[in-house]
Write a structure and sequence with these properties.
The complex is a heterotrimer of chains A (299), B (314) and C (627). Chain A is mostly helical and 299 residues long. Chain A has one domain (32-51, 89-293): MetI-like (MetI-like fold, Orthogonal Bundle). Chain A has ten helices and no strands. The longest helix of chain A has 38 residues, at 202-239. Chain B contains twelve helices and no strands. In chain B, helix 7 (171-201) runs antiparallel to helix 9 and helix 9 packs across helix 10. Chain C has 627 residues and is α/β, with parallel strands linked by helices. Among the domains of chain C are: 39-275, Rossmann fold; 386-465, no CATH class. The termini of chain C are close together. The chains are: A mainly alpha (299), B mainly alpha (314), C alpha/beta (627). Chains in contact: A-B, A-C, B-C. The interface between A and C is large, with 36 and 61 residues.
Chain lengths: 299, 314, 627
């Protein structure tokens, strides 16, 4: 096994630019046009929902006695028109968007936290505990959770915070499954064994090796979950189980709009447009993230 | 195969039992009873009602009675509709819900698979983009939005289809509700199918099949379809659940006399008996449907069946 | 020594007409990737002559597989091919799909590397076989005819119980059996040319010998031309008539097998041949032992590992015995090679010694202390001296950590006093020791090649200056030339750091070049231990003999004069299950397992119920040909 008499390509210094996986993923994401469009739209809607209310001529509660059931017009200042109580639809839509996004955000957070902890523990410890925990998830999965949520709403009344928590509890199941699957496959990877051979304890291994590698799938799934949560919240609000007055959400607005659809169509169209745009853009972003992070093979 | 089915059945029963128990206790332990309505009732009347409905028995006794009733098919009395018990109301509404739900299920599966296959075959060409856009809309538009829009377009403007009502089960009355119910699932199934088919088509055993000299159609039909169906079939289980919950909305909007409407009314009127009974019923139904789906899955993938012991060796 | 059908091969194809069954001219293959178009094959030309076996050899990325896939139009959807692939006077590359389909299977057949994923998992073997037959049969065949012909072919490829196999699914057969099924399936259509793309790479060496024999048999009996794509020079030397060497998408050199192996004209070919380890040329061990008769650093006695497997909620737990009664010693500065095929338990052994998994029974003594009795803290301290390099260079590094962090990690545990800066400096030092300069420090594993990642793994394993380094198939995933350089690196480190090594591998040729002594494992038991030269010159145990005879040597002359493989199929099963715990010293330092008293040979059909099969390959198939 004599030394090779030529320059070993392996040992030649590297000169190209560094690239982390995050940077690679971002580059791929940027190239995905629907995803970028979705991102732009989402940012616009977010800005509108957060800062908009400071700029609208009317607020969402005070009825405008001079304009009941007014169709949208730029001249009157009611760009989206008003509802039966004279409230400005633009302001109400923005408020509804804020509420829907807030619910989605909190619920996603709840789902992520519970799901990640549950899934990571089940996946890392494995064995009997994992089997038991996953059985538990299977059981819950098979049940119509929406009905439970409605059940809870019936009993405890329409509390916004309960809504957050309940919806979050709906979604953590799939997050837990994904995290567990990912943890299981990570745990069997050799770099975990290498860490143990280096003397690291379980806590350090989970902290340094498992969690950082969970970020990718969790982010992707969270991004894909948010539109589902927004849709679920709208669904509940539509049925009458969502947020109460004076708060409103896109779902409630749509419900109200559907009732008077034939005579005051704008009451349906504007909130619906916002909801659909929101959902579409989040969907594109979620898909884009998934494609961007998709590491099929390596080297 | 039979052994596998039996084993899955055995694991389902505890699941159901736990769920029913959870529902029962949550309801019973909640503050307020079914008769705490808007007008406070005189104590004597309350006591009588409680005795009549067995609400003054110890909780565990009530639970035991309820469980026994469930096994018999008796879901207890409805607290707001004195003339019909819960089971009777469900029995009345069930056929309508089943017809709508069943049709939607079949439609969603067939169209979804078809759209998915077409999307995979004509990938990135015009047909794929067209289908993809429709799919996207189906995914994103909530059913309570699609319904009124379709009602407006087809019912009022074009006047092709009736806006609602059962109409004695006439096909024209079924078209809109079934479509609205099925739409999001067509979308999801088609996405799953397309993704799975594309991935499999790039896989090694497809290469072998092509190398044999088979035509593309034969390769897809015999080698690619079945494995590509597995994620779709996995989705069908939860889909059955979603269809049932979705039917609640659809029945309300289109005025159909199914279970969903009873459920909503009961929920809004705090008829605990009915709510509990409906939830229990839905759960049993969903669990059974999931079991069936699992069996289909096992049929599709022989590895699940034959390697019951090998599975433990992974 | 590769178990070939007997007979010289210099005049192998007496009536070979010089006319070619496939002529490739100016073939270019390219792919559209995210990062732009990539050209994998740059305008190559070659012929496949009628009745010959042509070897196409090269390392990964040489384009050897892609060029053959392109001729049959089997590239992935983002690939495209230009040029000519002439068959029967027509260009396959420009043929309409309908006609290409008539060529595929019927005139030119192809088999692939991984038989598990290359057979359709949800169709029975019989269905996949009959599909080919029905597709290409000239007239309508009755069902019983089809069944008969399929069964005949299964027998012809030496598969036992052919009727039963027809009803089974691919995952119920072992790898070697599946590959035989692939061959049968392809040959059923009667093609005149068989393209075999790395057909034996995923198989154990004894199984490989059987498959290669089978292919040679087919070529002899049916006159089928064969193109054998492989990276293994030994395989080429034993089976091929002509060879072409590929590198970087171009043909470097081509000629008869004698010309290539004994008179290579190109520098690349020479380098490639020089990098291939050979078992017929056992050189001196890499380093002199410090004190061969002193107290061993490591002593393992009666080691056993049982796995108990859950079968799910309603199945019983089953016990699987991965190791039984294993013992060994290791002296300072020594390299002990641990050799075995899949299912032998060699990786389990490595992990049990290091207590990465807990042994069920037995004793591991390191520097006089029993490792099994150490508490967690003491074990952690002991790990400083016990390090391991893994097989998959990419999988053994955390993908989200820069390389320098991975290397520095052991220092967090073993030298906690070091500051972050101090750790990084030491890591950089370790990097340079393995030949990588500072520009590698902040890179991520996915930016480095396999060889570079493996060097990183070695740097990590040696940073704490361990006394024992376990190399678990550390070079098996590397190309031959990269492998040679990494082995040289390991030898250098062993000299400089005074390392003792447990070198685990399935590749006998590699172990012959690095180890002082060799231990042979079969199905969890030790069957033979001896100094390297002694073992290769005169193996005593039937399994070792069979193993050695199956290894293809990269020298066509040696291959031609090989006698048939030692022993008969089925012998070694009896021998190994009788291996027992008793090792008998037949010569100084040479131990051989001997038969246990009164133990029947368990029926070993290699079927799915066989506990030794459990997902791992059996080393032998029931009716593997013996030449």
């Amino acid at each position: 096994m004599a030394d090779a008499p030529y320059d070993d390509p392996d040992t030649r210094p590297l000169d190209s630019a560094r690239s982390t996986r995050g940077r690679d993923a971002w580059r791929r994401f940027r190239r995905n046009r629907p995803a970028m469009a979705g991102l732009v739209l989402l940012v616009l809607i977010l800005l509108a929902a957060l800062i908009g209310p400071y700029f609208t001529p009317f607020d969402n509660e005070t009825p405008d006695w001079s304009a009941f059931r007014a169709p949208p017009s730029l001249a009157s200042g009611h760009w989206f028109g008003t509802d039966q109580n004279g409230r400005d639809l633009l302001a109400r839509t923005l408020q509804g968007t804020r509420v829907s996004l807030a619910v989605a955000g909190v619920a996603t957070l709840v789902a992520v936290v519970i799901g990640v902890v549950f899934g990571a523990v089940a996946g890392y410890i494995g064995g009997r505990l994992d089997q038991a925990m996953m059985r538990f998830v299977d059981v819950l999965y098979a049940l119509p959770y929406i009905l439970f949520v409605i059940l809870l709403m019936v009993i405890f009344g329409r509390n916004v915070y309960l809504l957050f928590a309940a919806i979050g509890c709906l979604e953590w199941l799939t997050m837990a499954r994904i995290v567990r699957g990912q943890t299981l496959s990570l745990r069997q990877r050799e770099f975990i064994e290498a860490a143990r051979a280096a003397g690291l304890g379980s806590a350090a291994i989970v902290r340094r090796h498992i969690v950082p590698n969970l970020v990718g799938p969790v982010v992707i799934y969270a991004a894909l979950t948010v539109p589902e949560i927004v849709a679920t919240e709208s669904f509940l609000s539509y049925l009458g189980f969502g947020v109460q007055e004076p708060l409103t959400s896109l779902g409630t607005l749509i419900a109200e709009g559907t009732d008077v659809f034939e005579i005051l169509p704008w009451l349906l169209w504007f909130p619906a447009a916002f909801l659909v745009t929101l959902l579409l853009s989040m969907l594109f972003i979620g898909d884009g993230l998934r494609d961007a992070f998709d590491m099929r093979g390596h080297g | 195969m039979l052994g596998y089915a039996f084993r899955r059945l055995l694991t389902t029963i505890p699941v159901l039992w736990i769920a029913i128990t959870a529902c029962f206790f949550v309801l019973r332990l909640a503050p307020g009873g079914p008769f705490d309505g808007e007008r406070p009732l005189p104590a004597a009347v309350k006591a009588n009602l409680a005795a009549y409905y067995g609400l003054d028995d110890p909780l565990l006794v009530q639970y035991g009675n309820y469980l026994a009733g469930v096994v018999r098919g008796d879901l207890g009395p409805s607290f707001t509709t004195a003339d019909f018990s819960v089971a009777e109301q469900i029995a009345i509404g069930l056929p309508y819900t089943m017809i709508i739900g069943g049709l939607a299920f079949v439609l969603a599966t067939l169209l979804g698979v078809l759209a998915g296959v077409l999307g995979a075959l004509y990938r990135d060409r015009v047909a794929d983009w067209a289908i993809a856009t429709l799919i996207l809309l189906g995914l994103v538009l909530p059913n309570f939005l699609v319904a009124p829009i379709l009602q407006l377009v087809f019912g009022l403007t074009l006047d092709w289809l009736p806006v609602g009502g059962w109409g004695g089960g006439a096909l024209s009355h079924l078209v809109l509700p079934v479509t609205v119910l099925a739409l999001p699932h067509i979308a999801r199934i088609s996405r799953l199918m397309r993704g799975a088919l594309i991935e499999i088509m790039n896989g090694p055993f497809i290469r072998t099949a092509t190398a044999k000299g088979l035509s593309r159609a034969a390769v897809i039909r015999r080698h690619a379809l079945k494995p590509a169906l597995t994620p779709v079939v996995s989705y069908l289980g939860p889909a059955a659940g979603y269809l049932l919950t979705g039917s609640i909305v659809v029945e309300t909007i289109f005025g159909l006399p199914g279970i969903g409407r009873y459920f909503i009314n009961a929920a809004l009127n705090r008829d605990y008996g009915m709510v509990l009974g409906t939830v229990v019923f839905y759960m049993v139904l969903i669990v059974i449907l999931n079991l069936l789906v699992n069996l289909v899955y096992a049929w599709l993938d022989p590895r699940v069946r034959t390697s019951a012991t090998a599975r433990g060796q992974a | 020594m590769s178990g070939l059908a007997a007979g010289p091969r210099t005049d192998a194809v007496p009536d070979a007409s010089p006319e070619a069954v496939l002529s490739v001219r100016n073939l270019t293959v390219g792919f559209r990737t995210e990062d732009g178009p990539v050209e994998a094959v740059h305008g190559i030309s070659f012929d496949v002559r009628r009745g010959e076996v042509l070897g196409v050899v090269g390392e990964s990325g040489s384009g050897k597989s892609q060029s053959l896939l392109a001729t049959l139009g089997l590239l992935t959807s983002n690939g495209h091919a230009r040029g000519e692939a002439l068959h029967d006077g027509r260009n396959l590359l420009t043929m309409p799909e309908r006609e290409l389909r008539r060529v595929r299977g019927r005139r030119i057949g192809m088999i692939f590397q991984d038989p598990l994923t290359s057979l359709t998992p949800h169709l029975r073997i019989g269905e996949q076989l009959s599909e080919t037959l029905r597709l290409h049969a000239p007239d309508r065949l009755s069902r019983s005819d089809v069944r008969r012909r399929c069964t005949e072919w299964l027998e012809r490829v030496h598969l036992n119980e052919p009727a039963r196999r027809l009803e089974q699914y691919p995952h119920e057969l072992s790898g070697g059996m599946r590959q035989r099924v692939m061959i049968a399936m392809t040959m059923l259509a009667g093609p005149e040319l068989l393209i075999a793309d790395e057909p034996t790479t995923a198989l154990d060496v004894t199984v490989q010998a059987g498959i290669l024999d089978l292919m040679r048999e087919l070529q002899r009996d049916l006159g089928t031309s064969i193109v054998l794509v492989t990276h293994d020079m030994g395989v080429v030397a034993g089976v091929c008539d002509r060879v072409q060497v590929m590198n970087g998408g171009r043909i470097v050199e081509s000629g008869t097998v004698d010309e290539i192996f004994h008179a290579p004209a190109e520098a690349y070919t020479r380098r490639l041949l020089a990098a291939v380890p050979r078992i017929d040329d056992v050189r001196a061990p890499p380093a002199e032992l410090v004190d061969p008769h002193g107290e061993p650093l490591l002593r393992v006695e009666g080691l056993g590992v049982d796995f108990s497997l859950h079968g799910g909620l309603f199945s019983k737990r089953r016990r699987f015995q991965a190791l039984e009664g294993v013992g060994l010693t290791l002296h300072a500065g020594e390299t002990l090679g641990i050799v075995g095929e899949s299912g032998s338990g060699k990786s389990t052994l490595a992990r049990a010694i290091l207590r990465l998994i807990e042994p069920t029974v037995g004793r591991v003594t390191w520097l006089g202390r029993a490792l099994g009795e150490l508490d967690a803290k003491a074990m952690r301290d002991a790990r400083r001296d016990l390090q391991i390099v893994f097989q998959d260079p990419f999988a053994s590094l955390n993908p989200s950590m820069p390389v320098v962090e991975s290397i520095a990690e052991p220092l967090r545990v073993f030298e906690p006093a070091l500051s972050r800066r101090g750790r990084r400096d030491r890591a950089r030092e370790a990097l340079s020791l393995v030949g990588l300069d500072d520009s590698f420090a902040n890179r991520y594993p996915h930016e480095l090649s396999g060889g570079q990642n493996q060097r990183v793994g070695i740097a990590r394993a040696t940073i704490s200056r361990p006394k024992l380094l376990v190399c678990d198939e550390a070079v098996s995933a590397l190309d031959v030339s990269v492998q040679a350089r990494v082995l040289a690196l390991l030898a250098k480190l062993q000299r400089e750091l005074g390392l003792s090594m447990l070198f685990i591998t399935h590749d006998l040729a590699v172990v012959s070049a690095v180890a002082h002594r060799v231990l042979v494992l079969y199905r969890g038991r030790v069957v033979e231990v001896a100094p390297t030269r002694t073992l290769f010159a005169g193996p005593r145990h039937p399994y070792t003999q069979r193993l050695l005879s199956a290894v293809p040597v990269a020298d066509p002359r040696a291959e031609r004069h090989a006698s048939g493989p030692a022993g008969q199929a089925g012998d070694e099963d009896g021998a190994a299950s009788n291996a027992g715990e008793r090792l008998r010293e037949v010569a100084p330092g040479h131990w051989v397992a001997e038969a246990r008293q009164g133990r029947d040979v368990p029926g070993d059909t290699g079927g799915p119920g066989d506990p030794a099969r459990s997902g791992a390959e059996p080393a032998f198939e029931p009716t593997a040909p013996t030449g």
